[in-house]
């Protein structure tokens, strides 16, 4: 098996390594307690593109928040770049499951919030924000307010905001969920390119098996709650990957592997081809 | 007393618009007003009500024109008191809310005091103000302030706390400081709430100023009300009430307009 991270970008050492050991996350309230994650241990080398796959409620978002330092594990430790996470990493970019745009800021200003908070040069960042907007096909929406955008458009603005400062740790929680199939494919291609060019560690949550295979160096499949890692699959497809890689037998192999894991878990029961239920693959 | 449900300040139902005119803003209230005045005029004349009990609109008009100088100068006094009280309530109210949100412990300690200050009838403590400060413009302004700041505090507090956990996470993921969270997230989120609070505050401030003038003052529309009542100058009294109402409406919609200028994203 190829060492994870091998397929990733030039090893300038910029990207952050993530170490997760024995992490447990229990949400306790007076009436009940929910174990969201149980005894999770894994290592994500710097520069790796890692996807998290798993049924709804298995703790994917929770794991992202823990890595981000927004919440803390009930037990176990998380390290980013060699130091234990106690607060958000200074070079973090995060796409949340909701778009979380500020209704009082225009599209471009929403993206520039990242620059404002980081006290970066707004002028230089404005040019970069425009570039990013053009890349996601929203150059015409620069001065619109979020309420004037569709859900998919808002999600794309959220992605631009997360990558404006070229983070070395990028956490994305179902960033393409609200997009139509075509835009989704395009965004996947662009994200794959970006991740390959820039030295960034990416943890990417998705419900789409083929999207995960297409984008990732490695896929972690998580069990239903409490979330554990039930499969750790290294995707050794050559990069750069064009959309046509999805028609190759090796791609189908990987999709089949992941599908099998879901079947073993009892989450997928019927024997349809894996791509069918998600519409990103014909 | 004040709620988060009306941050837009535009709760009107969608216009049915049978005709463009009927759909124009201000048309329905105008018809209502003209109708009321007409009914009033007719009733007073037909039933021959003595003018010191209830003057007809035409009598009030005449009294208003005759005493215009008096009404105007006293209205200016009340206006000044109202605006001073309102401005104080806006500044103090928002600052208190910020303190209470930034230091929840202080908030929990302060809140009962604020509520208590509000449930005490102002008419009952107004004489105290007179004893402490004396009669006049300062006392009326202070009473206006005391009456007006509460809705500002309540709404601003609610607004500053109206941010989702997700948005807080977003800010923290960018490394935002407490001050940045306040500046970029909490304050803008609170603006619509604060505007609602200010709309209530301006109405309360007018009442407060009038109460102050009732209790101890020798100028202002409230003073004029007392004097005209004592002299059975009911027509002038009503004229003063009309001026007061007009002033209140103007101020209220002024604040609403201000709100719409500030909140352009809605
Ligand atoms: N703040 C919280 N308080 C209490 N329970 C929580 C909280 N956040 C998550 N949970 C619980 O933890 C479990 C995992 O939630 P999480 O949001 O991480 O799932 P997920 O894998 O992201 O699901 P989805 O795919 O639907 O987004 C769920 O059972 C949820 O109810
Ligand atoms: Mg989730």
TrEMBL record, chain A:
**PROSITE patterns, from UniProt?**
ABC_TRANSPORTER_1, ABC_TRANSPORTER_2
Tell me the superkingdom of the source: Bacteria
Give every ABC transporter domain span.
18-249
Q: Which SMART domains match?
A: AAA
The keyword RNA-binding is assigned to this record: no
**Family matches, as InterPro entries:** AAA+_ATPase (IPR003593), ABC_transporter-like_ATP-bd (IPR003439), ABC_transporter-like_CS (IPR017871), ABC_transporter_ATP-bind (IPR050166), P-loop_NTPase (IPR027417)
* Coiled coil location: none
| Gene Ontology MF terms | ATP binding; ATP hydrolysis activity
Q: Where are the transmembrane segments?
A: none
User: Which Pfam families does the UniProt record give?
Assistant: ABC_tran
Q: Does the keyword Electron transport apply?
A: no
Gene3D superfamilies given in the database record: P-loop containing nucleotide triphosphate hydrolases
| Alphabetized UniProt keyword annotations | ATP-binding, Nucleotide-binding, Transport
Q: What is this protein called?
A: ABC transporter ATP-binding protein
Q: What is the lineage of its organism?
A: Bacteria, Bacillati, Actinomycetota, Actinomycetes, Streptosporangiales
UniProtKB/TrEMBL annotation, chain B:
Domain ABC transmembrane type-1 stretches: 75-255
GO terms for cellular component: plasma membrane
Q: Is ATP-binding among the key words of this record?
A: no
**Compartments it resides in:** Cell membrane
Tell me which InterPro entries the record gives.
MetI-like, MetI-like_sf
- CDD domains noted in UniProt: TM_PBP2 (cd06261)
Locate the transmembrane regions by residue number: 21-42, 83-106, 113-135, 141-163, 184-212, 232-255
Q: Name one GO biological process term.
A: transmembrane transport
Membrane topology term reads: Multi-pass membrane protein
Signal peptide annotation: none
Task: Give the UniProt keywords, A-Z.
Answer: Cell membrane, Membrane, Transmembrane, Transmembrane helix, Transport
**Major subcellular site:** membrane
Report the Pfam families cross-referenced here: BPD_transp_1 (PF00528)
- Family stated for the protein in its record: Belongs to the binding-protein-dependent transport system permease family.
**PANTHER family given for it?**
ABC TRANSPORTER PERMEASE PROTEIN HI_0355-RELATED, ALKANE SULFONATE ABC TRANSPORTER-RELATED, MEMBRANE SUBUNIT
Query: What is the official name of this protein in its record?
Result: ABC transporter permease
Species of origin reads: Nocardiopsis ansamitocini
């Amino acid at each position: 098996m190829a060492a994870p991270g091998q397929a990733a970008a030039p090893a300038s050492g910029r990207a952050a390594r993530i170490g997760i050991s024995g992490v447990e996350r229990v949400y306790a309230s007076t009436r009940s307690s929910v174990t969201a994650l149980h005894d999770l241990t894994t290592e994500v080398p710097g520069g790796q593109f890692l996807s998290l796959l798993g049924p709804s409620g298995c703790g994917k978002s929770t794991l992202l928040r823990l890595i981000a330092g927004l919440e803390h594990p009930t037990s176990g430790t998380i390290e980013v770049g060699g130091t234990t996470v106690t607060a958000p990493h200074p070079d973090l970019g995060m796409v949340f499951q909701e778009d979380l745009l500020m209704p009082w800021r225009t599209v471009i200003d929403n993206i520039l919030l990242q620059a404002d908070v980081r006290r970066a040069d707004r002028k230089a960042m404005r040019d970069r924000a425009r570039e990013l907007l053009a890349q996601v096909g929203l150059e015409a929406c620069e001065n619109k307010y979020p309420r004037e955008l569709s859900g998919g458009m808002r999600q794309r603005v959220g992605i631009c905001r997360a990558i404006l400062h070229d983070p070395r740790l990028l956490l994305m929680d179902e960033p393409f969920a609200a997009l139509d199939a075509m835009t989704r494919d395009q965004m996947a291609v662009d994200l794959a390119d970006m991740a390959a060019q820039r030295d960034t560690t990416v943890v990417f949550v998705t419900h789409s098996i083929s999207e995960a295979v297409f984008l990732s160096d490695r896929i972690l499949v998580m069990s239903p709650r409490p979330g554990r890692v039930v499969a750790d699959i290294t995707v050794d497809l050559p990069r750069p990957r064009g959309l046509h890689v999805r028609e190759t037998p090796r791609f189908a192999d990987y999709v089949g592997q992941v599908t099998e894991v879901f079947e073993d878990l009892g989450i997928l029961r019927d024997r349809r081809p894996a791509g069918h239920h998600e519409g990103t693959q014909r | 007393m004040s709620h988060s449900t009306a941050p837009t300040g535009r709760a009107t139902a969608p216009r049915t618009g049978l005709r463009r005119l009927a759909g124009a803003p201000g048309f329905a209230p105008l018809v209502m007003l003209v109708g009321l005045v007409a009914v009033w005029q007719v009733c007073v004349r037909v039933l021959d009500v003595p003018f010191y009990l209830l003057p007809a609109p035409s009598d009030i008009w005449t009294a208003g024109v005759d005493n215009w100088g008096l009404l105007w100068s006293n209205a200016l006094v009340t206006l000044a008191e109202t605006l001073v009280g309102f401005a104080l309530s806006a500044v103090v109210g928002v600052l208190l809310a910020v303190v209470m949100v930034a230091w929840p412990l202080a908030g929990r300690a302060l809140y009962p005091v604020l509520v208590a200050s509000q449930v005490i009838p102002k008419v009952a403590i107004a004489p105290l103000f007179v004893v402490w400060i004396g009669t006049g413009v300062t006392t009326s302004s202070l009473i206006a302030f005391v009456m007006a700041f509460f809705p500002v505090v309540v709404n601003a507090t609610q607004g500053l706390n109206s941010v989702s956990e997700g948005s807080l996470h977003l800010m923290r993921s960018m490394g935002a400081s407490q001050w940045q969270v306040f500046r970029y997230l909490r304050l803008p989120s609170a603006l619509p709430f604060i505007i609602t609070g200010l709309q209530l505050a301006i109405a309360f401030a007018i009442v407060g100023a009038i109460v102050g003038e009732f209790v101890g003052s020798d100028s202002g529309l409230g003073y004029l009300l007392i004097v005209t009542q004592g002299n059975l100058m009911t027509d002038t009294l009503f004229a003063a009430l009309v001026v007061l109402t007009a002033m209140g409406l103007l101020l209220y919609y002024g604040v609403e307009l201000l709100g719409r200028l500030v909140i352009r994203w809605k």
